[in-house]
Amino acid sequence: xxxxxxxxxxxxxxxxxxxxxDFDGTITLxxxxxxxxxxxxFGVELRRQGNKDVLYNGRPFRDAFQExxxxxxxxxxxCLELLLQNVKLDPAFKDFATWCxxxxxxxxxxxxxxxxxxxALLAHLVGEEEAAAMQIVSNDVKARPGKSINDENGWDIEYxxxxxxxxxxxxxxxxxxxxxxxPVMFYAGDGVSDLSAAKETDLLFAKAGRDLVTYCEKxxxxxxxxxxxxxxxxxxxxxxxxxxxxxxxxxxTK
Length: 254
Fold this sequence. Notes:
Layout (H helix, E strand, L loop, with lengths): L3 H4 L9 E5 L10 H9 L3 H14 L3 H10 L5 H11 L6 H10 L4 E8 H12 L1 H5 L2 E9 L11 E4 L11 H8 L6 E6 L13 E5 L3 H9 L4 E3 L2 H12 L5 H4 L5
């Protein structure tokens, strides 16, 4: 039987806290999948309608997301190059990541996006060493039948699991939550791909003005709002240092 640290990699260093986070639109200022859809696919209006259908009409996220990505036919290598040119990092994330490494708070990236995009953007934005220290759990990319991913209309998303999300982020968090003794767990997100993770950790950070805030208010899920990672950095440091509790930090949109 695997030891907890083998099956739960974030426990390897016996941390006091674990920081789970979405990638697109949370660590980055732009969502890479939204950027591709808006600029290379069927555009902003249809994408927003898809998000509304998930948020208000119960449409599976996986279906709306697949439709978005199917509208992007440019070869994968060209998409990646354009993303590296256009997607920017939250300016405060790098300092937060450095603090996390110094204070033994593992960062686990849980993403509805694709592994090669996330790894390339993280290495480009925070550096190879910092990026390599982060565990990434996400979907992947695969070639369509008879094609290479770098052909026109040659790539497709390869989902992490069979859930309606494509990647049910709660599946990664719950084994940690079930431990009799465990670290404090945080999660940061912004959108509809984060709905499965919203209720799973001790403290949820939801990005101001985004769909995750709407969901939390609708479903009465405790959260605290953030504008950028400097807000998160202060609260996480205060909780880890014992200055405030997670309950005191869950202030909603105040």
